[in-house]
Amino acid sequence: MKPAPFEYYVPRSLDEALALLAEHGYDAKPLAGGQSLVPAMNFRLAQPAVLVDLNNLADLAGIMADGEGGLRIGAMTRQRAVERSPLVAQRAPLLAETLPYIAHPQIRNRGTVGGSLAHNDPAAELPAVALALDARMRVRKQDGERVVAASDFFLGIFTTALEPDELLTEIVFPPLPPRSGVAFEEMARRHGDYALVGCAARVTLAENGKVSDSRLVFFSVGDGPVQAVAAAKTLRGQRPGPAAMRASAEAASQEIDPPSDIHASADFRRHLAQVLARRALTRAVDRASALR
Amino acid sequence: MRAIGSSLPRGDAVGKVVGATPYSGDLSMPGMLHAVTLFARRPHARILALDLGEAGRVPGVVCILTAADVPHNRFGLNVPDQPVLCGPGDDEHASRVRFVGDKVAVVVAETVEAAERARALIRVEYEALPVVPNPVAARQTGAPVLHAAHPDNVLLHYRVRKGDTLAGFAQADVVVEGEYSVGGQEHAFLQPEAGLAWLDEEGRVAVACAGQWAHEEQEQIAHALRLPDERVRVIHPAIGGAFGGREDISVQIVLALAAQKTGRPVKMVWTREESIIGHHKRHPMTYRCRTGATRDGRLVAAEVELVSDCGAYASTSTKVLGNATIMAVGPYDIPHVSIDAYTVYTNNVPSGAFRGFGAPQSHFAAESQMNKLAAALGMDPVELRLKNALRDGSLQVTQAPMPAGVSMDHVIEQCAESIGWRRTAQGWQRPAAAQPDSPWLRRGIGFAAAFKNIGFSFGYREHCWATVEIHGGGDIDRVVVRCAGSDVGQGAHLAFQQIAAEALGIEAEKVEIVSADTATTPGSSGSASASRMTFMAGNAIRGAAEKALAMWRDEEDRPVIATYEFNPPATTPMDDMGRSTPNFTYGYVAEAVEAEIDTETGEVRVRRVVCADDVGRAVNPQQVTGQIEGAVVQAQGWATIENFVQRDGLVLTPHLSTYLIPTVRDIPDRVDSIIVEVPDPLGPFGARGMAEMPFIPFAPALTAALHDATGVWFDHLPLTPVRVLETLDEQA
Asked: Which chain B residue shows the shortest CA-CA distance from A265?
């Protein structure tokens, strides 16, 4: 199919883009990599009256070091660039580990980091990773800027804290605390398809080797990235042996409320969540322990 | 210079890769109209009334075809039990829809948009009827009768009795029992159904479409339109894959009718969803098996009951059932055999031809039985197979001797050795798979073998025509081969070219193929199916070429033209004991699979496949390897990821986002194609058919590998992760 008719703008500056968004409000949709929006338009699931194409805004793309161990990624940075960046591998290994799971190389060549985060598909990997890493979203509008924490950014299915006149311009990944390890797991019926279940884990160890902090974020199990808060808490203060991790993973799988569809039942997703969470936590702990 | 045995490049490759080759959906003509189909989209209902009023008034609509417009409203490849269009009227048969893809009307309009708009305005009044969701429900007393001629909904029952199974099982030291089930499969060829029909310069109704057998389509169109065959012309332009999925009529009859009615060219292209609900699938089947052997591994008796879901219409179900029957105990010599096979009407999408044609289903059951028997006997599975493999002269289950040229043992040995089986003093020994570090990952190696008929079976009068024209003076400048056989993407026409060149002793570039147009190719070639095209057309072309060459030497006239009809040895239908000469020749294949299973998530990964396929003579080795790799991947899809789900007659997987097929990242890490060349005494230059064979043993070889990895048998396909986990849990 072909999309419904729409007006199309190619702003040459961020200010111009923000002005267009301010002018058209809810009628407008920013176009980043187009890997979700364009198919949705072709199926007429989305029918924006105005498209604001961000692809000429070179300033919005780029990967930069941020202070001691942090990272800043422009919203229009292609996913493939993030995947291949040595700086990302060094400063945000969770991102580097996750990127190859996102669809296929052809899609990552076009798809952007900001586009995926702003779209907030419940089956998308990047929102879960952003939440696991306590990312901060830099958001601009015509007469202002604000920074939104990941935990306040993802509000529900395809919904974020962005107002229609706002644009996500940059994502800041703060440095991980010392003795932290991360890991990512997902399972799909077919490589590159939406995951049946996926999860991102982050574990920080205290000097005595016990868990001081942990984070477990699932995707494809709810309305967006789903943090298993209670399950992560059960690990805190524990020595991270196999039993503790199994218990935490088990608790996590009970904490989520996954959907059923043609590819997997809720029960099966719950089972997978427990298996993947245990594996991710185990790997994260191994990595954290290696840093002690 | 030998034309046969060299991997000449495909003449059609570049055009297809760059998108220049026109497929039937790409064709256009001046003044062309567009047609769309109104599908019933309900599994079982009576059509009480049809109101075209509002639809007919949509600007641009030229006509709307309904059941009343079809002169002879029945068609079918083997049994004419399917209405072309379903609608209210005196014909009780056509007044009912029996599956979601039954067609109710075809709207013909100046534009696709107008046709679609009108289609949405057609009012159909249905009376819902109780749905027959599967063969078990269909055979219960009181089940709705789907076809009046079959009050028990059983379209066909085959009964085979060879020897005396009671006496046979009495000799058995070990008896293995098993129940198996396999799912349907969507062909998912690249090109959805499409066609263009017009009245040609001779006033014939011409249809350009993607099919597998131009002359049969011509006959079925003529039958439905009540025209003499020669008033209908069928042309196959480039075809985007078939796999059996184009054996049945899709758009052909209604397009011919629309062109006849409007006098203008009419084109129709199905969407992927229409394709998936509109054409037949591989047969889902269930099996109950008993197999007995003596302690030293000699098979003495086998008993099989199998039931296939025919779906709403016969399609090729009777023929598939025949194949499934004679392969129900695998490629082994067993003195006492009893088989009962049923194909049963339901309200599901019809089942029909799909690469392997009943052989993959039956070999899954038969080879799983062999693997279990080997385990029960404490015997290596290759050892057990070699002890019992069919040989020249072995009696088939139909009590006819195997045709000469049986290479089953040879193929089994080659395959086994290639993946590391060792011959020891105690016999053959399976290699151990190297185990990965992760405790939840287990690897194993499994084995299976198969045989499959080449050509049509059970008394069908199998034949193939070809004409060869030699042009030139003293030397041969140019050769034109006319043969109707369709190149459905498998490279048949290159094989035709190489065989003609070989027979004439010239370079293949000098040979031009004229094909798949009933107006320009002399007679039927039969279908591009049953692994028969190279075998049948090869023999016909070789015969015509040799005849033409003799004329070229003896006569002055130029060009010389010779026509030849190849007729293989006759076959016979089964009698009430299953006695028959079912086939004139077979192909033989063995496969070993190394697989990895994640025992916590149920994921199965195929690491390596070794396929040894006796092709008799590889006309073009690269094409043969392509067929082996393609078949293995398609079989892997059927066994693991592909899951055609129907519930109460509704298709729950009508898109390629819900019906998943493997991508390049899901296929085996490695496929080793071993081309075995034991000449077929009847084959052209010794060539056998081969296109289906590598599909057949894959699934049982995979489940054998999973058993080697886990000690658990997996008897039901597809191996979805949840089913794998449940099976592990049950047998833990």
From this structure: B722
